[in-house]
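During the no-cost extension, the postdoctoral fellow (Dr. R.K.) reprocessed legacy sequence entries with the updated structure-token encoder. One reprocessed record is reproduced below for audit purposes.
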Amino acid sequence: MRYMLFIYPGESYEGQTEPSVEDVGAMSRFNEELTKAGVLLSLDGLHPASEGARVTFSGGGSSTVTDGPFTEAKELVGGYWIIQAKSKEEAVEWATRVPAGAGDMVEVRRVYEMSDFSPEVQAAGELSEVPPGQTFAE
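Re-encoded structure tokens follow.
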């Protein structure tokens, strides 16, 4: 099973424009541990919400774009890992090892797989298994 671990930076990072050398070193060692254990599938850190945007859909094909920062800044994802784990308990065990600071939070969520759905939904999903051809501007 695949699990996604989201990290929400807490008060230990407020006002920082970049992480400290010590924080990056600790996170790199944790990422190496995940890699050596053979559970790491993907990971990335994210730029601050002030550089992002949110798209809110109101139905009927209309949407509204809001540039960051967002009002609930304390609940914004700072990065993520996707890991392969045998159970939620194993994924949570990995999450407890994240070198996090005061107020940081790591959320553990299982990633959907097509086998989680009914045969009808799986059949509908087969239409999407081959991505459409890409076009490139020249």
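The chain has a mean pLDDT of 85. The two ends are 41 Å apart (CA to CA). The remaining legacy entries will be reprocessed before the final report is submitted.
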